[in-house]
Structure prediction request, 179 residues.
Amino acid sequence: MHVEISSLPGLAKAIKRCHPGYIISVTDPNSPESLQAKSILATAPCLYARLNFHDIDVPAPGYRMPSKDIIASVLVMIDRINPGERPLLIQCNAGISRSPAVALLAQCHVAMQDDSFTPGDARHLVRALDGAFGPISPNPAVMQIGEELLGNHGKAMREEAGLLDRTRLSIPVDSSSIF
Prediction:
């Protein structure tokens, strides 16, 4: 399965460029970004799903964590859709944390249909995605849920994602606005 990742500002261009067979949009619940994504998706020439959880990895009052139910629903959806030759486009606000994490779990889930796919191969998915769209920093909470859902393959990806050099990320974060 071919996966593309996009930030919200690049979503409309990504849709035109890659002609996705399906889109998964991950945004903060009840946010202006969620409304912006909804508006762009309404014009997309394919089906899409919207996921709403914050880009956090520990619970915080007023913020929605990714849940096992949400992530499991993505895997069920992947089984039901068939993007075929067209890529699966996964978008989050910055295209760095939530969308790469969801993309990795989707790719691993599909690849696990082949019995020869090993946890070592799952580790390579992380490096390949980072090389294609890097720098990425897959959301640790989503990756932890992936470990629960995908077993040793998910564990291998979570461990490999933890080794990525996050010093390459140069997005300024105002921690006072988070909590």
Notes: Confidence is low (pLDDT under 50) at residues 167-179. The chain has one domain: 3-166. DSSP finds seven helices and four strands in the chain.
